[in-house]
Specification:
This protein is α/β, with parallel strands linked by helices. It contains seven helices and four strands. The protein has a four-stranded parallel β-sheet, with helices on both faces. It starts with 8 loop residues before the first strand and ends in a 5-residue tail after the last strand.
């Protein structure tokens, strides 16, 4: 209820492998209000060296990007979803293209140093999640956090600061050995 009234929450669900963390969240999602948007992702044991792995997974799901799609198809999906969500988000297009590892074609983007690019990517992701929460509560679930990559972990720490006054529930599932 707190999330529905604009008091964002971060919930950590901790337990040993096989105890039912994912099943619990599945049942929670199944019984949730249909006005909630639900985006899930998971970290994989081999993905801890892949920057943004769980966030990339959630974006591919939201933008309906399939394996092997052409750059042209991906660009079209990105632009269409961004424009339909909020026309102001189109300014995030170069950052999202870079985030999705698409070849750069923006001279202003290419002129940025790596730290500036990282900030722009963090802001683009944050702005999309926040905008999604404005139409109704947004539930973001990241499973198997114990295998998260460093960049995604840094983004989540950054993003948590933006959640308190938003309709966002961030569910983090992990095993006890994760710190």
């Amino acid at each position: 209820k707190k999330v529905e009234t604009g008091y964002g929450q971060v919930v950590g669900i901790v337990g040993e492998a096989g105890i039912g963390k994912s099943r619990f969240v599945f049942e929670l999602h199944r019984k949730a209000n249909e006005s909630n948007r639900y985006i899930e992702s998971r970290c994989l044991q081999y993905s801890s060296s892949v920057p943004f792995f769980p966030i990339l997974e959630s974006f591919k799901f939201y933008f309906e990007i399939g394996e092997g799609e052409s750059e042209e198809e991906i660009n079209k999906k990105l632009k269409t979803k961004l424009e339909n969500l909020d026309a102001d988000l189109i300014q995030s297009f170069p950052a999202l293209r870079h985030f999705l590892s698409l070849p750069g074609r923006d001279d202003m983007w290419e002129a940025l140093d790596p730290k500036e690019k990282r900030v722009k990517i963090f802001e683009a992701i944050r702005n999309i999640f926040i905008r999604l929460s404005q139409d109704g509560p947004l539930v973001l679930m990241v499973d198997d956090l114990q295998w998260i990559d460093k960049t995604s972990e840094e983004f989540i720490s950054y993003f948590i600061e933006w959640i308190p006054n938003k309709k966002i529930l961030l569910l983090l599932l992990y095993r006890p050995e994760y710190n």
